[in-house]
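Possible regression after last week's pipeline update?

I re-ran a chain I had predicted before the update to compare outputs. Posting the input and the new output here so someone can diff against the archived version. Not blocking, just want to make sure nothing changed silently.
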Amino acid sequence: MILDLFAGPGGWSRALQVLGRRDVGLEWDLWACKTRAAAGQLTIQTDVAAYPAWPFVGRTRGLIASPPCQAWSMAGKRLGLLDQPLVHQAVADLAAGLDTREKLLTACRDERSLLAAEPMRYLYALNAVGEPDWVAMEEVPDVLTLWRQYAAILRTWGFSVWTGILNAADYGVPQTRRRAILLASRVRTAQPPAPTHSQVHEPDSLFGPGRARWVSMAEALGWGATDRPVPTVCAGGGPNGGPEPFPSGSRKALSDARERGTWMPRPDGVVLRSRREGAGWAARNGTRENRPADAPAPTFTAEAHRWSWSLRSNNQANATVRPMTEPAGTLFFGHRANECIWVAEPAPPTAQNADTAVVPEPIRITAREAGILQTFPADYPWVGTKGQQFSQIGNAVPPLLAGHLLAPHLEAHLNPDDFTLAA
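New output (post-update):
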């Protein structure tokens, strides 16, 4: 079997399904387990730290692990960095067959920090019988030093190991999500997959095949210059389903903006421009929080109004804002809430729109759109309230990136076209 620790809503599992394989996922979160069940993925709902390793001994070909990142992420308090010496100690002890987790946990500032040591407990038990054949692990960049400790231990057990930072955008993911990766194998040389995309298109040459330009949000979502370009917003819905509410919780719609609006690509051609906004962003730009629920939606007319849409990746003061012609920044959703917002900017004035441009109000991204930007299919069966869905999406491994990482270990051919996104 392929054992998937901290399996989440199925990023690795979705990649394995596309590649014609299946895994057994261990996951604690109820709603992630329900999503996995709806997606047809085998799951044991359990605490990875409490579940025994012996049921998998003698049966495991590959081990996957993406420990929870909240303790280490820049989106949180990053107490994992302060706990890092304790985590290193836990990994070293577990690799020697000593279980000191309970003692070390009492000294941790964030109890989640020590979860990054759990894969070593399983690896130690499996190594006793010469398993697994391969290992793939993923975490936020600050965990790279811990992965290097894992690598040093795995090499003494006969593994070839590679560790490093990969950018998901280099593999066709419409998101510049950087992650620390560990790849290990007993049967082949471990190395990262060759990038398929780059910030700027690279043509074929004598030195090898070229690389396509990074996939933009507009491409992934199927929004072209004239083809349904505006973020999805419609009336109705509730906490357990339906469209994403506005920041105030109102379900009032920009009813036909998607049909009548006109998305204009940014004319300046800037790639990867990040805009850092201060705390006054909301005051300067406005939100729908004060918009009456029964207020009429503004009318956007293609002939009179022109704007360009960008995605603000979170609600922090230093949030990245990217135009739709670029990949998104790293998506994360704090406190089980949706903090990613589409914001519109007027195009440079022209003779046709200089006096009439009206910029739409910010619109929260939908779970469907966020899932697509993580390379889940548009119809992926997210389960739970909107907040629970967004929490799952933000924590998931992009399936397309996972597919690139897993295909060599499985001796499987990866066809990116099999990862269907927008319908």
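Follow-up from reviewer: compared with the archived run. The radius of gyration is 23 Å. Marking as no regression found.
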